[in-house]
Amino acid sequence: VDCFDATAGGWSAVEDMGCARCYCAAAMVGAGELVVAGGSDSIWRGGTTLETVERWSPQVGWSTAEYTLQQRRCGHCLVHDPRSGRLVAIGGFDAEAMRYHASAEQLGSAVGLPSMSTSRTGFAAGYGVDGAIYAAGGSVNGEVMLSSCERLDPRTGRWEALPGLSERHGYCTGGCAVDGSFWVGCGMDPFEGASGTCVERLDLRMLRWTVVPGWAPSEHMIHSPAFAIYGTVVRNGQANE
């Protein structure tokens, strides 16, 4: 595990997690605390999909959370609402059951949440400043890549369809920024090459997508040329790095 210090402008190593996890999901909560959920012990479909959750803080290091995911997930998203403290896991894939998830669950809670309109793995998601959860792109089954977008509106308690991306963005990433926008970055279609060749930004008030100028990658990106953290967009994860 590596940690980026924005003040120092550099990366430093953090102690390893309790178990190896690929295709896991992570979210920052509180003052420098990291939560990592799910994942798989293998990059292949025959691996073991995990439901365990670990937490890291500068004071304690890694510890096992007192709760687990209700469903085993890898390739999912974990989103955090800083106002309520809620952590929600969405979508993903269970390699053992060969099931692609559309479901959502609140970590550490028995409260039920509605499922998305379609299963998604390798997608982008985030909590918007309006309190809604946004999800876009990804793949429905590991082969068909998506350009669709939807949100879980807290006022209605239902997922609703939003305008779609201009391109399919499979195996992408992204997040919501404090300026009221949702970013989705590039991605890859493993069967057809690049599925998203740009970075797109959704204005949460106008519900209008725009392609971000100057972000067309020179190489296909597998995990994210862009994601939003506290209003700052960071380029990350070139496949050839």
Structure overview:
With 241 residues, the chain is mostly beta strands. The protein is 0% helix and 35% strand. It is built from no helices and 21 strands. The strands form seven sheets. The chain has a four-stranded antiparallel sheet, with no helix packed on it. Strands 12-13-14-15 form a four-stranded antiparallel sheet, with no helix packed on it. Strands 16-17-18-19 form a four-stranded antiparallel sheet, with no helix packed on it. β3 and β4 form a beta hairpin. It is globular, with a radius of gyration of 17 Å. The two termini are 16 Å apart. The C terminus is likely disordered.
Q: Give the integer mean of the pLDDT values.
A: 86
Structural class: mainly beta
Q: SSE order in H/E notation?
A: EEEEEEEEEEEEEEEEEEEEE
Low-confidence stretches: 220-241
- Give the number of DSSP strands: 21
| Widest β-sheet, arrangement of strands | 3-4-5-6
* Approximate helicity band: under 10%
Quick one: overall form? globular
Number of helices: 0
Radius of gyration: 17 Å
Distance between the termini: 16 Å
**How does the major sheet shape up?**
4 strands, antiparallel
| Beta-strand percent range | 35-45%
